[in-house]
Amino acid sequence: MFMLDRGRTRAVRRRGALLASAVVLIVAVMAVSAGSAAALGEQCSGSNVRGLGAFLQYRAQVRWGSSNELGFNGSSSPYACNGSQGAGGKPEVSYTPTDSATALRAWGAQDGARHEEAFGFPVRFLGTDIAPAGPVGEEGSMLNKMHSALGSDVVVVPVTQTAIAIVSNPPALPGHAACAVPRINATQLQKVFSGEIKNWRQLSAASDSNLGGDCDQAITRVAREESAGTTYQFKHYLDQVNPAPLPCTGKTQRTWSQLQAPFDGEAPANTEWPRSAGCQEGEGPVTTVAKGGEGEAGPLQFVANNHGTITYASLPEAEDKAPKQIIELHNGAKFVSPETESGAANCGAAKYPLPEGFEKGINVDWSQVYGSNPKIGEAAAAAYPICTLTWDVVPANAAGLFGGKVATTLRDYLRFLVFPEGGGAGVRSIGYQDLPGYVAEAGAIAINQIGGEEKPEEEEEKEEEPPLSSTGTVLCNVQPEYTAGTLACPGGQQFTSQEIWGSVIEPSTFQSTSGPKLTVTCNDGWVAGTFKADGTTVGGGLAGMAFKGCETSLPESPEAYLYLEGTPYDAARFVYIGGLAPQGALALARQGGGDVFLVLQGLGEEACSYRATFLSSQMVNGTPSRLVIQGTWELNGGAEEVCPLALQESAQTTLQWAEGPLYIAGQ
To answer: What's the whole-model pTM score?
Structure first.
C-alpha cells in the first residue's frame, strides 16, 4: 500500500509538472500574438509561403502543410488555419527538400550573399539540422553573414526533434548462412566509421566471428555525398565517443568535430571521412559514397540493396526507405531502438541546454545545442543516445522583406509547429518527437520577434505569394532551359497534347508496418491522365494508377494487384518546385475533396482498402522523366487478420506523352 501511494504521488507530481510546462508554453504562444499584432495581421489572414530546407524535416513538413486533420490547413488546433480560426483564411505552406548546407547558403550563410535564384521560387523560410553559428557580431560567422545578406536580424526556431538511426545490411555470402548483426555498441560504431574496424566478424554482436565464417566480409561504410545536417549531428555523436585525433585524416590529424564544418570550399569537411588507400590497408573497400538519390534516399537505398554495408540516417527517412535494416544501439546501459512502439522517435529523455541569449529570441546561436549522449542510459535506461533538434529560420524583419501577409503566415505556421497539439501531434507517429516544453517555450519567444515595418499596401499586393495551384507551372514537350533563375520551356515547346501516361521502371514495394507481416513487390504498372500545359486537369484529370505483376511474401497468396480507388482525380495538378531535382510534384485531389484511397486485392476473398496518411509524388525531369512516389497507408476496410493495418509504399514510374518524355518548368 505504501509503495502504491508513493507511485501515485510521483504520478500526480509528474502530471503537475507536465501541466505546468504546457501552461508556460500556452502563455508564451499567447505572447506571440500580443507581441506581433502591431506589425502583422490577424491570425490566418496571411498569404501562401514556400520554404526550402533539410530532408530530415521533409516528411514532417508534408504532414504539417497538409489539409488533413493533422495539418496546418485541417487541424482543429487553435493555432491552425483550417478556415475556422482567426480571420478564416487557409494560407498554404509548401516545402522543397535539399540538404541543410544548401538551404543555409541560399540566405548567405557561406558568403554573405543570397542565392535564391537557383531554386526558381521565393524562399520564405529555411529548414536546417545545422543551426547557424554566431555570434552575429563576429565577422565571418554564419549568423553574421546571414544578417548581412538579409539586412535583418535572424529568428531561429526549433520545430521538432528526431533520432539518427543506424542502418545496416550484414553479409550474405554464397554457401553461408546470412550473417546477423542486430545491434552495435558506441565504441564499435565509432571504430567502424573511423575505419579501425574493417570486417563484420570483428563486431561483438556478429552471429559468426570466425575467419572464413558467415560474417567474414569487409565493412562498406556508406555516407552522404553532399554536406548534410544529419552528417553534422552524427559526427558530433562520434566525437563524444572518441574526441581524439583520427588516423587517415591528412597530415594534420583531425577530430570528428573538425570534420563537421558544412562550408569549406569545394570539399567541405562535412563530406570527409577517415580514408585513404595507403592508410587504410585491410580487407577490401572501406568507404563508398552513395550516389543516384536525393538526400538520405541514396545511402539508404544503397544499403537496403547491398549486403555488407552500413550507414546512418534520420529515423523518419530510415523508416521510410529501409525499415528492416535499422539496428539497436547501446546507450551506456543497454541496447535500445531509435523508435518507440507508437512510431515516435525515442527522444523523450533527450536534454538540450538552452543557448545564451535565448530569452531575446533573435540571432540566437543554437549551433552548440546537441541532443546526443552516448551514456544517456545511465540516467534514462530506455533512452536512445543520438537525438537532434531541427530548426526553421526566418528574418525578424519578414514584413519588411516579404510583406505583411507573408510574415503573418510565417508567424502563424511556426506557432502551430511548436505547440504540442499542433505540429507535435501531426508528426509524432512518423518518427519525430515533441519538443521538450522548455525548448518549445524558447521557440515561442523567437516567433514573437517576427515582424518588421510592413510594406505599403500597394507594394505588398505585388509581393504576395501566388496560389500554389496557379499557372506558375508549365509542362513541356522538350527538356526545359534554365533561364533567369527558373526552368523555362523553349519557345513554342509547351505541352500541346493532353494525354500523359507512364509505367513502373523499378520494382514498387508495399511493406506492412503494422499488423500481419507482408511485402508486395510489383514489377509492372501504369499511371495515366489528361492535363493542360499549365499542369491543371482537363477532362477527367488523373484517370488511374495501378500496380500489377505483383508478388507477395505469403506462400498462400503469391499474387496481388493494387490500384487507386475513387478515380478519376479530377482536381489533380502538377506543381513546379524549382530548378533542382525534384523539379515538380503531382498533387492528387478531387473536386469534391476527400482522402486518397488504395485497394489491395489478392490476400483473400475480401479486398483491403487503405487511406493515405502521407503521400508524396515528386517529378524529376530526365530521359525518362520520373514520378517518385512515397506513401504511408492505414487500413480503412478489410479483415484485420488478413490485411496489414498499415502499409509503406515506394514506387517510381515514367512520365511521358505521345512523342517522348514529359517535362515540368516554371515558365
So the answer is: 0.69
